[in-house]
């Protein structure tokens, strides 16, 4: 299938793969869901799973495409780690917050870097994210600030 091809084929244009996976048409959504289902995130830390998910493609620039990809990631992470979050919305909000933190922490053009507490507040911005553990959020913050999630076309 297409999702398997995208995962297994070396040398694909990662930006084009990201654009396809983030598409809103029915075929793109079906491919993205199959792509997400191909990952086993069991017992992986949240940021590690997100890095694994993002490695085969370059995150598109359009917010709606990123949104769809983070929804698919969150659903798959929750399916592989039952009980890790109250619901997939909490995982989705956290995934988006991690992407925003990564951009903030590793883009020199960004002034006023997010603090740990600001990141935690952002991660809890949705009602469903209120039950996310402080220690987990602080660990996520520290790991993402220390080790950038790279969005490049290189292997």
Automatic annotation (TrEMBL):
Coiled coil: none annotated. Gene3D superfamilies: 1.10.220.20, Arf Nucleotide-binding Site Opener,domain 2. GO terms for molecular function: guanyl-nucleotide exchange factor activity. Residues 1-147 form the SEC7 domain. Pfam families: Sec7. It comes from the Eukaryota. GO terms for biological process: regulation of ARF protein signal transduction. It is found in: Cytoplasm, Cytosol. One of its GO terms (cellular component) is cytosol. This is Predicted protein. It comes from Micromonas pusilla (strain CCMP1545) (Picoplanktonic green alga).
């Amino acid at each position: 299938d297409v999702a398997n091809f995208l995962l297994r084929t070396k040398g694909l244009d990662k930006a084009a793969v990201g654009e396809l996976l983030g598409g809103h048409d029915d075929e793109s959504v079906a491919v993205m869901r199959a792509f997400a289902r191909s990952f086993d995130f069991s017992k992986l830390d949240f940021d590690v799973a997100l890095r694994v998910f993002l490695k085969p493609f370059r995150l598109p620039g359009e917010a709606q495409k990123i949104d769809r990809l983070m929804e698919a990631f969150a659903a798959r992470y929750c399916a592989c780690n039952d009980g890790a979050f109250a619901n997939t919305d909490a995982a989705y909000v956290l995934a988006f917050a991690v992407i925003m933190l990564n951009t903030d922490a590793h883009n020199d053009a960004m002034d006023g870097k997010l603090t740990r507490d600001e990141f935690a507040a952002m991660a809890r911005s949705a009602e469903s994210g209120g039950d996310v553990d402080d220690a987990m959020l602080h660990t996520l913050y520290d790991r993402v600030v220390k080790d950038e999630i790279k969005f490049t076309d290189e292997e």
